[in-house]
Amino acid sequence: MKALCWHSPKDIRCDEVPDPKIEHPRDAIIKVTSCAICGSDLHLYDGYMPGMENGDVMGHEFMGEVVEVGADSKHALKVGDRVVIPFTIICGECDQCQRGNFSVCERSNRNRDVADKMFGHATAGLFGYTHLTGGYPGGQAEYVRVPYADKTHIKIPSTGLSDEQVLFLGDIFPTGWQAAVQCDIQPTDTVAVWGCGPVGQMTIRSAILLGAQQVIAIDNVPERLAMAQAGGATVINFAEESVVARLNDLTDGKGPEKCIDAVGMEAHAGGSIDAVYDKVKQSMMLETDRPHVVREMMYVCRPAGTLSIPGVYGGVLDKIPFGAAMNKGLTIRMGQTHVNRWTDDLLRRIEEGQIDPSFVVTHRVDLAEGPGMYKTFRDKEDGCVKVVLHP
Amino acid sequence: MMSRTNVFPQTAHSMARGLGWFSIGLGLAELLAPRALTRGLGMEGNEQIVQAYGVREIATGIGILSSNQPAPWIWGRVGGDALDIATLAAGLQQDNPKKDNVELALVAVAGVTALDVVCGTSLARRLSPPRRRRSAIDYHRRTGFPKPAHQMRGAARDFEVPRDMRTPEALRPFPTIPFPSD
């Protein structure tokens, strides 16, 4: 089958690889009908996430049709079922899964030893996302083996929804939703969202739906800011104005109550001193992440406010103003998304027409064109916000 | 999972990274040990120039390693190589007892210059077509909502925030009594 494979930083190719097979009775094989490039795939593309190996199949946002089911998953799935696969692989039985903390499933990461060493304790297995999270082949492929398939799926009813309307239930929609939910938005809140990429766009709409009084979106790409504005946000172009000054202006000098980092480890902050500092240190392998957004959020957030961090970080962060965060009594919530915790509710909202997540798709191409689209997406060329690939 | 087919050349980027690290290494040597270098070349008295070249090498190296488009930095290295060659040429006088070392250094710089040119040319060839930043792209209608966004505010207030994600009651907003003005 064809699949997009990582070979080294900035080297992803459409390769011919062996078809996946059932390896465990709880597995299923999915024929992929649509998949997407996620912003967090770019951290792998750029080589900032450790744990990738030559030939790893990329992709953790995909959906398709079940073509084979292991004996122990037959009670939950049958051949022909249409499913979206969450990027977090879940056993559904461990203590964390029972609590709904699916992204830290205790059993699905088959490389626990490595992950334990890196993070202290392992997190869930993820598709196509480094050997720290299990090294599972991803979904930018014609077929995928889904481990723990009886739990790791979202079944899509035949109600006429298109792939693009439901595909993002596997990652960016619940990620944006959780980012907003964990802020516990109150009707009087101002929510500031850094980053107007796909997750930022979903976060903005989630914050609006959850009733924030004001949502402010921060980016420097005009078309992404336009999309944010369409979703109900007041926008700040950080290339043209001071983010801190403008946020204070928009909140009577008090700062936003809720701040959301939808950027993560590769922040681009123009020529700010800390951004240059991060770039130099990261290029010399003296720092793993560029945490400009975390610094800015801690500084500008209203005392007793909340920081929510869905943006992905990989390692050790430098020069974090923890004194500001501590003294202002900020609450910090973060983590990979507990996808299945939200998907029943979000699927209902899509079915009811409350939101149509396909608004974010700007590019549709064949799988073979995927390698080129990584660069287009990374460089934000051609108005690219979200790429959907068709195997 | 092993793969085959499609070779996508990454040599130029790998070479650029190698040259970036080489720049930093050479720059550090020039910055920290200028006397040893000038003595070896029979060019004593040029220590400050060597240190300045060291700073240039380090800056170029960092530029190469931190940029997604390292080509301009590589061409910057070529310019620096020309400067190095011109400076070394001054050491080719007959009365320089270390003239042989200068000749060796010139050969080495010429070799690295060739690598820089090959790398810079390959990177330029690999550059994508000019950016198609479509200024006319208009995403103002991509709301994702069935109604204007302001009418959707709070449409999901039926959602019950799970108890582990709720703000503790004591931290929720509550009416406050304003301070009397002075």
Uncertain stretches of chain A: none
Strand fraction of chain B equals under 5%
What is the N-to-C order of secondary-structure elements of chain B (H for helix, E for strand)? HHHHHH
| Strand elements of chain B, count | 0
Distance, first to last CA of chain A: 10 Å
Instruction: Output the radius of gyration of chain B.
Output: 30 Å
* CATH fold-type name of the largest domain in chain A: Quinone Oxidoreductase, Chain A, domain 1
Based on the coordinates given, report the CATH architecture of the largest domain in chain A: Alpha-Beta Complex
Count helical runs of chain A. Answer: 13
Q: Which tags fit this structure?
A:
heterodimer, A: 391 residues, alpha/beta, 2 domains, seven-stranded mixed sheet, six-stranded parallel sheet, 21% strand, B: 182 residues, mainly alpha, 6 helices, elongated, disordered N terminus
Can you describe what's shown?
- The complex is a heterodimer of chains A (about 400) and B (about 180).
- Chain A is an alpha/beta fold.
- Chain A has helices at about 40-45, 95-100, 110-120, 165, 170-180, 200-210, 220-230, 245-250, 275-285, 290-300, 320-325, 340-350, 370-380, and strands at about 1-10, 10-15, 30-35, 55, 60-70, 80-85, 90, 125, 145, 155, 190-195, 215-220, 235, 260, 305-310, 330-335, 365, 385-390.
- In chain A, strands 3, 5, 6, 9, 10, 17 and 18 form a 7-stranded mixed sheet that branches. A 6-stranded parallel sheet of chain A has the order 13-12-11-14-15-16, with helices on both faces.
- In chain A, α5 packs across α6 (about 200-210) and α5 (about 170-180) packs across α12 (about 340-350).
- The longest helix of chain A is centred in the C-terminal third of the chain and has 13 residues, at about 340-350.
- By secondary structure, chain B is mostly helical.
- Chain B has a domain at about 10-125.
- Helices cover about 55% and strands about 0% of the residues of chain B.
- Chain B has 6 helices and no strands.
- In chain B, about 25% of the residues are buried.
- The interface between A and B is large, with 71 and 50 residues.
